[in-house]
Fold this protein.
Amino acid sequence: MATNTGPQVGVTLYSFTNPWLTRKFELDGLLREVAKRGMGPNIEIIGFQSFKEFPDVSDEFAEQFKMLMAETGLNPVSCAINSDRFLRPGQQPIDDASLVEYHKRQLRSAKKMGFKLVRYQFALPVELLPQIAPYAEELDIRMGVEVHAPMWSGHPAVQAYGEMYDKLDTPYLGWIPDFGGTASRIPESMLNAARAVGAKESLLDKLKEVWIEPGMSHEKAGRLREWAIAEGHPPAHIQAASLAFFILANNDPKSWAALVDRTIHIHGKFYGMDADGREEAIDYGTILPLFRDGGFDGTLVSEWEGHAYLPDDGFDQVEAHQSMCRRIFAGG
Amino acid sequence: MLPVERVIGEEGLSVGPDGLRLAMRLPWYRSLPFSTVEVASLSIDGEAVDLSAANVEYEGESWPLADLGEQTNAFWFVRDSAFLHLPNRSATAGSEHSVALTVNVSPPYIPGMKRANPQTQVLRVA
């Protein structure tokens, strides 16, 4: 039997957050639509978005889900889980034992439904990994931590995880790059959404200027806010403009090279495809060859996040993004 | 308004012998424990509603609004409406009212983040 060599392209249902929240599709209908459009077979699903029983999925639901996968021909590669440490806002995080158990519950559910790996988060303190990794090994399910903006390979949290990964030295732990941390510019579609709520060009010009300055995202957001308030821009305009700080950072796209070896899955984060079939903010042509040439043979799932500021259903966006990724992986 | 910003539910405002009910949607992309959700304010026809006796109803359960912060293991599925129940408050079926609701969410994996989500809509009482 032939084995896969090279990266696969799939989709995360997160791209279809808008039609999901408006109840346009039930879960089975959405999965059938994904299959019909040929966006799979490899897919990612966020447990707490799509499964009502999460974090503890019943055997009955898991069976139904597996039958649906068999019927549609889809392949459940990645289940996104969450590190919900702060269950009481403004108070102390939950205790370590509860947080470890919270991860185990989600790992069991993901495994039961047939997922091959989970996406987890840096909100899990790195020192708890030695308590969770052996459980993932026992269940035979891999765990990839999502390297999401403002993080990138050089972030201190990524480095601390990397040291723990070296220490634990297991193939069950790896990275899931998201690419939002290495955007080269703010998407024009995001700026247009801010314009649509009334943000003035002077505010957006200042945003572009502050966004590329060095420093932490929240500090830069504070800097823009201070300036904008002094200049008399209304809070709604400042909020629309500030979104860029929380989902995009402009670190070096080539810096992903440092994480390729332990990358087990990729979030192909994107905001909008331009008329030439390129992502408007993230330089895929620079980034994807690093993974292809570095031997990555997992799945890149197209993750359209324009729904943070646009009402689009996401389907056409994902189709265009998948075409681009396949073209680049093929050497085009 | 984007789907992820919506806080007034499709089922709208209804009246029964035990008071008024307002459908609420969770303004986030995933389910959250009720403990991370805060019903910050409600006004009807421009008048602030006293929420001290209000309850939140979901899937056959009901909690005093003041105790919502204790519900760390009750998850609000992101596709479902929960209902804000206002005992001792009434309205005429068929009448129309401007309803302004603000729901705050503090996603439990993002320390310090609190997002305020206001929405105003004219609803016909069912």
Notes: Strands of chain A lie at 8-12, 42-46, 75-80, 117-120, 142-147, 173-177, 266-270, 299-304. The first helix of chain A runs from residue 17 to 21. The longest strand of chain A covers residues 75-80.
